Amino acid sequence: MSTITTRKADHKIDPIHLERWSSRAFSSKPVEDAKLHSIFEAARWAPSAANWQPWHFVYAEQQEDLAKFHSFIYEANVEWCKEAPVLVAVISKKTRNDEGDANITHAFDTGTAWGYLSLEAARQGLLTHGMGGFDRDKAKEVLEIPEEYEVQAVIAIGYHDPEAPLSEKNKAREVPSDRRPLDEFLFEGSFKK
Fold this sequence. Notes:
- By secondary structure, this protein is α+β, with helices and mostly antiparallel strands.
- The protein is 33% helix and 15% strand.
- The chain has helices at 16-19, 33-44, 63-72, 75-81, 106-123, 136-142, 168-172; strands spanning 55-60, 86-93, 127-131, 149-158.
- The radius of gyration is 18 Å and the shape is globular.
- The mean pLDDT is 94.
């Protein structure tokens, strides 16, 4: 994990929340199996509605599997994520039982699992970078994902390399981003704009 951060919290929180950021500068150094399994273990313990645990993950470490992911990730993202040693498809089950009843919180709960995964990765000294820039239909086809599942995101996981080969555009983006202040999204009693 990079120790570079200019982020400042307005209220006391654990520093991991400020230190975790979505760098694009990945080392091709492999991620140890114990660390990789630890971050999935953290995701496992995320809360979910009625304990349905709709999250699923398909990951790639081998070159042939990484190439499959590159086939459905948009080129602007492949440009930087091709160095990442692990790519993960974050998938949620849209139904809650064999009868096909809808799980209306599948995306919410799966997003929570991704958050747990991301924070544990940071604690383990790893970077994570979530992506929405990919072809969802092609991802489902390539990864053989059944209809009752939805691909929410793709995540790159690995170690930081400040010398990673990045385009000038992406080099300029290698700064932890700030966040909107609380008063822009926190309302008491009713939604006020």
